[in-house]
């Protein structure tokens, strides 16, 4: 079965690889580090047994240094949590699942894990890493088996391009994402695909998360409701569309191909995300934050910003007790554009 949209980052660690060009995504990980630490420590503290296992999944992990820095942050947070309880000699073993689409360069990830071989001092929590190649828009884990879900810079990718666009039932006027000339009906199609995907994602993860589990999501979005304020992301796709159009005009690309090509993408507003989470009645939002960073990967100053949204969903209060009230929901922290 073909997984999701077939999106994948450039493999390997050469000059043009994702691994060598993921500084922008690294900025998001650095920005959310305090939230990540707090969430992991809360999950760790909630594991009451002297010996316990914490299952942690990174969804859309890709390949490169960001995957490793996430693992290292989690290990650090678990370490400081168990150190505090030294007298009780608590041991928390961490089982990591690194998830991405099957086309991801998992080999690079596994090879780079060798760097962690020497990490294991006597106090380092024991940890194990496995790959999980499958779309996160499908069931990934047995029910109530995961303590912490993390996803950074991935959830703006849709499971597919809306069918009405790929079949050319509706045309996007030469755009490949939402651009200035995109018809309102086409905007609606992108929005609806996002709603379907995000609702599915929340439902699947809710079933897989243990009671007391948490989820931290960071993805690209819009600062407000205005559809064209997705800043540089929208501009970027407009520039690509212009280049493709010039190839059509030169007869080097067939017009029908450009007409049927759209990017499986959508950058929601905070309001849209909040509404869907609240409507699902599955999670409580513990923290939602919108932050911006410079579009230039090497420039850490403000200006020419890109907006990101970071959501953290946290502990479940009395999950699976029946009914659909607040008592069944799990917390979520969010938003970073
Ligand atoms: C920009 S990369 C972010 C990688 C990493 N989290 C980071 O912070 O550097 C987005 C990743 O999401 C993955 N992705 C997109 N759609 C996905 C899906 N439906 N299921 C799993 N992974 C997906 C892509 O393959 C890609 O590796």
UniProtKB/TrEMBL annotation:
GO terms for molecular function: metal ion binding; S-adenosylmethionine-dependent methyltransferase activity. Coiled coil: none annotated. The lineage of its organism: Eukaryota, Viridiplantae, Streptophyta, Embryophyta, Tracheophyta. One of its GO terms (biological process) is methylation. This is Uncharacterized protein. Keywords: Magnesium, Metal-binding.
